Amino acid sequence: MFIDSKWRLIKLSLLAPPNTQEHSANTVADSIKSEISTRYDIDIDQYARFTVSDTTESARNVSDHFSSTDQVDCLMHLLSLCLLYGLGLKKNTTSDGRVVVTLGGEFRDGLCVIQKLRDLASFFNSPSRLTELKQIKDVFGLPPVDIEVDSKTRVGYAVTLMRRSVFNHYAFTKYFESAPLNEQTLWSSISSADWELITEMEGLTDQLAQFSVGNVQKDERPTFRGNEFTQRRQSKLVSEFTWGGIRCRDRLREQLALRFPIQDVNDIKALLLDPRIKANASIIVSDSSALSQAENELQLELEFIFQKYFARNVVNDESKETVLEEAQTEQHCETTPDSAMCSLLEKLCLMKANWRDYQRLQNDV
Length: 365
Prior knowledge:
Blueprint: E1 2-3, E2 9-10, H1 25-40, H2 44-47, E3 50-51, H3 56-63, E4 70-71, H4 73-86, E5 92-93, E6 99-100, H5 108-123, H6 127-140, H7 157-167, H8 169-177, H9 181-188, H10 192-209, H11 243-259, H12 265-272, H13 281-284, H14 288-319, H15 321-331, H16 337-353, H17 355-364
Parallel strand pairs: 3-4
Antiparallel strand pairs: 1-2, 5-6
Helix pairs in contact: 1-3, 3-4, 4-11, 5-7, 6-8, 7-10, 10-11, 12-14, 14-17
């Protein structure tokens, strides 16, 4: 993701099939550099600023093979911890193995309902049951939302499980209406109170879970755009939440305050460069001066890059002037007037926007 010379935000998504042979950090880094260089003629090693992954160790190891990247894998790691503690899936322990109460209070109900949803998803791993469930969706015109258990190492896997389970609730109801009695026990174990808690927990954590980048590693993704089904949400006052919903909110709030106590400028830059959250950066960052500093530093960095790029082109043009004069007639037919005019206008606009810096660079050259 970068900003071009016309100050447009350009997003490139490089999709690759899963590598079943080797996943070493240097192999992954070399593959990224090679593919981007081949496809876009960009030396990503010179321009990459941030390295982000959904797992801590992989991001740290891969980033070591890029010369000037800021490591932000801790953001994903801390985000995962906030979600796990907030949903009750993780407990605080001490070095001697004793369990201590997590900030925000004990929350066993969260783990209980998530485990019930895991069992429900595992129940439909059977091809015959999955086929019957799909037929029910087709008959009633329900969305074809998968019910599968994602890897537990993925950031936000539990939130995805809750959301998909809610979307499939009506299909589940129709399936178990005619299911054998020995299969109905699983469904009846999830009470209406459990479903209410599930919707509240999903609503509290949905926005945070969207930062997961695990979905881009799935080979069935046909494009870089998300294709996860969604639907209109209804507002619910916190005062109307159940006890479990309030406890989930309190635990999540305490974790965010504990693990993100200081708004670092580099972290804010990462937010500003992320199109998923850039528009809400002013809401998330309470320190307006830190936000302004991050915006100004990003703008200066971008201007510096384009100034250097323009100065380099000027030097190259002067060194090749005689060669271009000799080959001008031969290459005239290959260069369209439109492309030449666009290139000229682009340079003129860049010179006008940075005229003083441009003159200084010319003197340095």
